[in-house]
UniProtKB/TrEMBL annotation:
It comes from the Bacteria. One of its GO terms (biological process) is maintenance of CRISPR repeat elements. This is CRISPR-associated protein Csh2. NCBIfam families: cas_Csd2, cas_CT1132. InterPro entries: Cas7_Csh2/Csh2, CRISPR-assoc_prot_Cas7/Csd2. It holds the Pfam family Cas_Cas7.
Length: 307
């Protein structure tokens, strides 16, 4: 049986982008996301979770317990229905609920709602559900009973913030030309012009939190946590594209608490990771100095640099 978590964790993730767009904003013509007031670059938590999901799917494949609920082009209702098709416990619970709905006088009310049992099945089989949580109350109705095939909602133990660049970023626009054409009738036309937006260089910082209390509710284990650390450290290595340029994890600092409630506020711990610029216009990670203050740590807290 997987070992459950008994500690709170807080972590700091540093990653860089060079000559790429780390997270385009569809509301702004796919320009790199930024804080309009300060000019600092932003990468959403959703974007980072997508990369973790892709990495786990790549590493684990079809291994039990490590399927991915929110994957590209997946139909979520179909994913939810799998709990009703493959789990005998869920099927039995739904039948019991059907019988009770039909005749409440002669049938005992089930101890647990079938939706709760389906939620347990989803947590046990999908890594991202037990890690990040999910809204799974969108299932289709059972044709016979009119009961909805849902798995409720799950609040995940892993939470990530937006990543923010250490310094303001500059978004550069590049014109590109396509030399080929799609149809013969376009041979004599001028070649298609396009636009590409890149950040020359940006160092981004994101914060994350791990709740052992929520981990126990979803079944997120110590092995799952080790896989999460691996994903955060290596996810950019397997997410290459021309649009994103060169991206890499440059630091993963994990604060481990001796207790489940925690031994110090997260913001106090995050302030111990200090990033300083060594040059006016940074163009590489070497232009920054990252310092981890591990002196006089709060009692019951240890810090480790995993990447």
């Amino acid at each position: 049986m997987p070992m459950s978590l008994s500690n709170r964790y807080d972590f700091v993730l540093l990653f860089e982008v060079k000559d790429g767009n780390p997270n385009g904003d569809p509301d702004a013509g796919n320009l790199p996301r930024l804080d309009a007031e300060t000019g600092h670059g932003l990468v959403t938590d959703v974007s980072l979770k997508r990369k973790v999901r892709n990495f786990v799917g790549l590493v684990k494949g079809d291994a039990p317990r490590f399927d991915i609920f929110v994957r590209e082009k997946s139909v979520l209702n179909r994913q939810i229905e799998r709990a009703y098709e493959k789990s005998g416990k869920v099927q039995a619970a739904m039948e019991a609920w059907k019988n009770w709905q039909k005749d409440k006088r002669n049938n005992p009310k089930p101890d647990r709602h079938y939706e709760d049992i389906a939620r347990d099945w989803m947590c046990d089989n999908f890594f991202d559900v037990r890690a990040f949580g999910a809204v799974m109350s969108t299932g289709d109705e059972d044709a016979e009973s009119k009961l909805k095939k849902t798995a409720g909602q799950v609040r995940g133990p892993i939470q990530l913030t937006f990543a923010r660049s250490v310094d303001p970023i500059v978004s550069q626009e590049h014109s590109i030309t396509r030399m080929a054409v799609t149809n013969e009738k376009d041979l004599e036309k001028e070649r298609t012009m396009g636009r590409k937006h890149t950040v020359p260089y940006g160092l981004y910082v994101a914060h994350g939190f791990v709740s052992s209390f929520l981990a126990k509710q979803t079944g997120f284990s110590q092995d799952d946590l080790e896989l999460l650390w691996q994903a955060l450290g290596q996810m950019f290595e397997h997410d290459r594209s021309a649009a994103r340029g060169e991206m890499a994890t440059r630091g993963l600092y994990v604060f481990k608490h001796d207790s489940e409630l925690g031994n110090a506020p997260a913001h106090v711990l995050f302030e111990r990771i200090r990033v300083q610029k060594n040059t006016e216009i940074p163009r590489s990670f070497a232009d920054y100095a990252v310092k981890m203050d591990d002196t006089a740590m709060p009692t019951g807290v240890t810090v480790s640099k995993l990447f």
